[in-house]
Structures are given as structure tokens and as C-alpha cells.
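Researcher: First entry.
Model:
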Amino acid sequence: GVLMHGPTFMGNPLACAVSLASLRLLQSYPLKSMIGKIEQQLRTELEPCRESPLVQDVRVLGAIGVVEMKEPMDMKTVQPAIVGQGVWLRPFGKLLYTMPPLIIQPHQLRKITKAMLSIATRKM
């Protein structure tokens, strides 16, 4: 029937306990403040990308930073260049984006934004 596997997962006491513990942990962090700090750092550090003739747009919303290129990126060139800088980003077509964990430290985020800037300006 429609809910063949429903009883297997619905109301599982262990799953419910884990979910509640996860929500409590999440609510224990000052998330608005953390996201605000990440957003401000992304805005500041990605802004120089706008100067590149290769860049169409730079967008930041909360803890998401996006550099939109004018042309799709060559993954065979870009991916090794990013990894070579000790950063893992997955370019998608014309978009180079990051959604870092909310517990990221400023020096760690700086490493990501530097890699993004190097790709945006082709200073790999």
C-alpha cells in the first residue's frame, strides 16, 4: 500500500530522541550572530571579485557566497586549482559558491574566499 514502510520509521523512539537532541544542540548556538559574521566576511572578501572582467556577479545571502562567472568554468582546470589551495569547492557551470559550516572560523573562511578570488581572477 501507500504507507508500506511507514510503520518502520514513524514514531521510532530512538529517531525522535536523536532529533530532539539535535534540535536542542542547534538552538544552543547564537545562530543569527554566527551567520551575520559569516555573511559580513563573505561580502568583504568576495567583493574584489567584482573587479575581474571574468565575473558577472557576486552575491551573498546569509552564509552563502556566490561568484557568478560570465562563462562556464572548465572543471578540469578549476577543480585541481582549488584543491591545490587546500579548499574543496564544487563549481557548478558558471557558479563558484560556498556554503560553509556555521562553526567555521574566520581564518578558515578566509582560505575559502582567497581560493574563490584566485579562480575569479584566474590567479591560480
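Researcher: Second entry.
Model:
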Amino acid sequence: FTITTVIVIMKFVSITGFVTKDLLSTVKFFYYTSRAFKSAQIAKGNLSSTKFLAGGVYMTLTVWEDKESMRKYYIGGEHLEAMRQTKSLGQYAKVYSVLTDEVPTKEKAIEMWRNEGRIVHGEPDPKYGDKIVSDVSLEYN
């Protein structure tokens, strides 16, 4: 008989979606995010970095060796500077991260972000996959 050993290599995947307020905010957003994106590409532990536009949402999909590598990038340098601009430049931001053995396609990343993401700035919006729950305990006359 034959024994087969399968080694599964887990990766930490981070998906971010950001919606800017207006044209000027978009220009400033590109300034900060282009620097942060370049920094991610050369960060220790980064396996891949992709950016794309999906339905008016600026998205990034980064893949890391582990959560600690992503965390070190997240709290330092160019990324921290970009995050400090979230409220002034953005109307909406949502993130999703997961430890997985499979790097999602862009389409799958969008689906994961929409369905499982956590809003970090802005109000829930069904157009970005958020569920709006009405408070049925309040009645209006």
C-alpha cells in the first residue's frame, strides 16, 4: 500500500474595500495608497498584492505568510499614514481577513468582502453587501 502525505500551507489573506468621498479625495487617496501598496509589495512576509476597482470600490487583496507579517505591515510606515486618512478621504471602508490554504480569485475576494467583511468607516449599505436590520420595536404614529 501507499501512504500519501499532503502538506497544506496556510496563508493569511486580507481584503480591503474603500469608497472615496469625491474627486479630490480620490486624488489624495491615490497618493497615500500608492505608497502603501508599494510598501506592501516589498514587506517581509508578503506573498502577493493586487489592487483593482469593483463597482466603484477601490479594493486590495494581499496575501501573507502569516498574520504576524501582515500585522507588522499594518501598524507601520506607509500603511499607517494611509489609514490615518480614512475619515477625511473616505465615505466607506470595509475589511475582511482570513487564514486559508487557498488564495481567492478577485471574484471570490469580492464575494468574501461583501458577505463577511467588517465595516471600519461609514454606514452599512446594501450596495456593498451590508444587511440593514430595521428596529421593529420603534413605531411611528
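Model: Note on the second entry: The first helix runs from residue 23 to 42.
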